[in-house]
Design goal:
3 helices
Length: 129
Amino acid sequence: MNRRLISSGAAFEERVGYSRAVVADGHVWVSGTAPIMPDDADPPADAYGQARRCLEVVAAALAEAGATLDDVVRTRIYLTRADLIDDVGRAHAEAFAAARPATTAIVAELLDARWLVEIEAEAILPADR
């Protein structure tokens, strides 16, 4: 299997031993992506802003892999509270209006108390990429 690892440079990648994304056999798997800001600045305070930040990081990883948000076939949304789904869902819908991937939303405790949401994605590379 031909496999390529993509890093976003987040401290957790080295500490925990994972990649932001893995590309193999025409697929791209993007790890759970929290609203990590440059220089560990505080993320946006609201769930919509945090979801948009997560999706920016996801989009950057996909771009490095040769994919776009339109190539995503599956997402998983992790929320700290169920009542955040409307705000997070709005950001998700804006990002994936064309792709409309299969998705799951899960309520979970996240690793940083500042985070309200984390998003992971799976994409299939088009044959021409």
